Amino acid sequence: MAGEPGPGQEDDLRLANSLRAGDVIALTEVYDTYAPFLYDYCHGLLRDRVEAAGALRNVVIQAREHIDRLTEPDRLRGWLYAIARKECMRRRDSPNRHTGQEAPEADDDLTDEQLARREERRLLAHSALAALNGRQREAIDLSVRHELDEVDLSGIFGMPLEETLALVEKSREDLGAALHAALIAQNHWKECPSVSALTESWPLSPQAATSLVRHVASCPVCGERETPPLQTDRLLSVLPIAAIPGDLRLDVLTAATAEDRSANRRAIAAWTEPFDEYGWPLPYEPSPARSRDRSPRRRGPLIAAVAVAVGAVVLLVGAMSWLGGGDGTGAAAGGPATGGSGSPGGESGDPDPSPSGLDPSVTSPSPTASKSPSKSPSPSKTPAKTPSKTPSPPNRPEPPRAGRLSVQGCSMGGQDSCVIRITAVGGPVNWRVTGTSGPVAAGGAGHLEAGQSGGVRVSRDIGLCLGRQSGSVTVSPGGTASVSYWC
């Protein structure tokens, strides 16, 4: 991830050549080097730890079986991500996918004050990313957090390199505008009624974030307001990283090397096909016929393509206008308050992936052919002569059980505001701020699904202040959150 040393192309070349030579130790080193990052990426696409673990296992198997296809061994890392994306898209298309078990976040040795600051920055990141569409958020996540270049992204997305360059450039521009708008909403929401109305709930929803960006661009007051510079890598570095299970290593390496699983590995490897002329897997297509009709990608040396793309970007502005109009919701480099990076659904660009499909390799040692559907029962030849005198009432689904609200306070320190965290536990919750006490102010209302988190911004009294101050915010249903600050 950004801020952590990643493997270089020399490591890629060495490991790829060792894999081609059949070195089992190299396969272990490949897992130790890349698996934590690939697992986080798969979890961001699938939103389920069981599916992410199954996807990672298949990626290692597929990489070992197909390593001879890769014509650019120094691009091993990006190639692994391309395999991982295709595997995740295939799983998301499965009607038997496993859902509802997100992975825990990787532990950080942070103090309570550092955690509070990270949570506030995390909500800001979610609010800015919500204004982007799914393909943009995934491109930002792969280029910034996973430190992949545009050539790798071209292979991962199955796009010509010049289009990939335009995608990354437009994504960064839109994220900059969205971050500027989110900072205005965070620090100056009191000063513009329109901003205040758009930011009643924090982090912002995709609809609110998009509306806020449009408002800031057209509002003479907000448009002239300056915000502190914040680099993209620092913004995204606070997003959650899915913790890879410690016991997954032995399971993956056994599945990839055990002699009695060779038939299973061949079947799993077949799911990666077809490949392009560079040995990169073509993007997943639900219909195999469409894969054969796909035109070959135009990839080449990055330096030469950049020169061509300088002029091409200008011509592509109109054609790439779809990038600003994604139709999905949620975060690309993560959903509201939880989860990892987001990504398009299939190839459609839906930003928040629905949980992925359960693959045969997850639950059984070898995939089996699907059985032919059984014949439907024939209708009764002689219908009942007389209806029942007292028909039983139809089975009506029970309404979902209402949840409760967990409320966590915050500390402003020496700042003007902070965000209290609210989480729906045990079911959906309609929440509302019903009051405050002490020298603080807050408001807002909204709806949270079970397990979903959000935030409510609390501001301090700007009057005379000496020493440490405290107050509270009452949120219904749920309780009271304590708030403090010092002067």
Automatic annotation (TrEMBL):
Q: Where is this region: Disordered?
A: 91-111, 331-410
- What name does this protein carry? Sigma-70 family RNA polymerase sigma factor
Q: Where is the composition biased (Basic and acidic residues)?
A: 91-100
Any one biological process term the GO annotation gives: DNA-templated transcription initiation
Q: Which keywords does this Swiss-Prot/TrEMBL entry list?
A: DNA-binding, Membrane, Sigma factor, Transcription, Transcription regulation, Transmembrane, Transmembrane helix
Where in this chain does the record put each RNA polymerase sigma-70 region domain? 31-92
Would the keyword Manganese turn up in this protein's UniProt record? no
Q: Locate the coiled-coil region(s) and give their ranges.
A: none
> One MF term in GO for this entry?
DNA binding
Organism in which the protein naturally occurs: Actinomadura decatromicini
Quote the InterPro entries the UniProt record gives. Answer: RNA_pol_sigma-70-like (IPR039425), RNA_pol_sigma70_r2 (IPR007627), RNA_pol_sigma_r2 (IPR013325), WH-like_DNA-bd_sf (IPR036388)
Q: Which Pfam families match?
A: Sigma70_r2 (PF04542)
What ranges does the record list as Low complexity composition bias? Answer: 355-389
Q: Which SUPFAM superfamilies match?
A: Sigma2 domain of RNA polymerase sigma factors
Show the ranges annotated as biased composition (Gly residues).
331-348
What are the TM regions of this chain, as residue ranges?
302-323
